[in-house]
Write a structure and sequence with these properties.
By secondary structure, the protein is an alpha/beta fold. The protein has 2 domains: 12-137 and 237-312, 3-Layer(aba) Sandwich (Rossmann fold), CATH 3.40.50; 140-235, no CATH class. It is built from 10 helices and 8 strands. It has an 8-stranded mixed beta sheet with strand order 1-2-4-3-5-6-7-8, sandwiched between helices. Helix 5 crosses helix 7 (217-232). The radius of gyration is 19 Å and the shape is globular. The chain starts with 11 loop residues before the first strand and ends with a helix. The mean pLDDT is 96.
Length: 313
């Protein structure tokens, strides 16, 4: 069973500056290796040091990007000029600035959606994809998470989430929360930020979730603002856009890895994507959930990067 590679530090970091945003980017591993772009989830989560460790540093040139307003990018939580198409433009500018002709895409959850969208827009720049915890950004997917899916499994957590809002926000929880976190009522903003973070963490981590482990509302606010900004705008996509455009990328090598116990993005998403990408390889992990952690999930992801390095060598 494979484990994460040893910790490494970047050999190059820089900021892409555009439209009032400074977008953090780093490179690590082998400067002459196979280029791979790591796409984090959220939206708004940012990259961590462990994200470098899914890739053999002798074989891969690993590029990690904190998307607009996320992680080490500045200003934190900025929503102006922040949408899906801006993120794709940033990735293309980074590719050009690093003089990379084609790269492998590695993304989980929202990062998987972004990888699919980038590949559909720039198929000639993509060597292949490794996708985890597939999120297809359909109304169906958002409704599962926030309307009539996960709430049936966590009714107590759902009650805490909804009652953080005034009664007027109950009919459309996403819009109500977005207005609260971007509004001027500081007490309401803090309450909703904590409630949203507790809900997201409970659905993501399940029994492993401990509310006391969350940061304070000031630290959580940038991420929550971005998550709700994208959700309230239906991820700036047409309904079912990702699946409808899969014909553009059917020739690309693709591995899809999904946990059977994923309650954020149910495994139906991965199964449906596989039907639209018949050449892709789908691996369903029986003992895994949404996050890229645990022996089974880490083994599957590291094995996928090793296989793809062989395939694309």
């Amino acid at each position: 069973m494979k484990s994460l590679f040893p910790p490494i530090e970047p050999y190059h970091t820089f900021y892409l500056e555009t439209e009032g945003h400074r977008i953090y980017c780093e490179e690590c591993g082998n400067p002459e290796g196979l280029p791979v772009l790591f796409l984090h989830g959220g939206p708004g989560s940012g990259c961590t040091a462990d994200h470098r460790r899914f890739f053999d540093p002798q074989r891969y040139r690993v590029i990690l990007v904190d998307q607009r307003g996320a992680g080490r990018s500045e200003p934190a939580g900025k929503l102006r000029h922040n949408d899906t198409w801006k993120l794709l433009d940033d990735l293309e500018e980074i590719r050009k600035s690093l003089m990379i002709n084609r790269w492998l895409l590695f993304g989980g959850s929202w990062g998987a959606a972004l990888a699919l969208l980038y590949a559909q827009k720039h198929p000639q720049r993509v060597l292949g994809m490794i996708l985890r915890g597939v999120f297809l950004a359909r109304r169906y997917d958002l409704d599962w998470f926030i309307k009539d899916g996960a709430r049936r499994i966590y009714p107590d957590r759902w009650h805490e989430l909804v009652t953080s809002l005034p009664l007027s926000g109950w009919n459309d929880v996403v819009q109500g929360m977005y207005k609260a976190v971007t509004g001027s009522n500081e007490a309401l903003q803090q309450r909703v930020v904590l409630a949203w973070s507790r809900w997201s963490s409970a659905v993501t981590l399940g029994t492993a979730f401990a509310a006391e482990s969350l940061a304070g509302p000031a630290d959580l606010l940038p991420k929550v603002k971005i998550e709700l900004h994208y959700a309230s705008h239906q991820y700036f996509l047409q309904e079912n856009q990702i699946l409808q455009d899969c014909a553009r990328i059917r020739a690309l090598p693709c591995e899809i890895i999904h946990g059977r116990g994923d309650l954020v993005c149910p495994v139906e998403s991965a199964f449906t994507l596989k039907r639209h990408l018949p050449g892709a390889e789908l691996k369903i992990l029986e003992r895994s959930g949404h996050i890229a952690a645990g022996e089974e999930m880490i083994d599957a992801l590291v094995s996928a990067t090793c296989r793809m390095a062989e395939r694309l060598a």
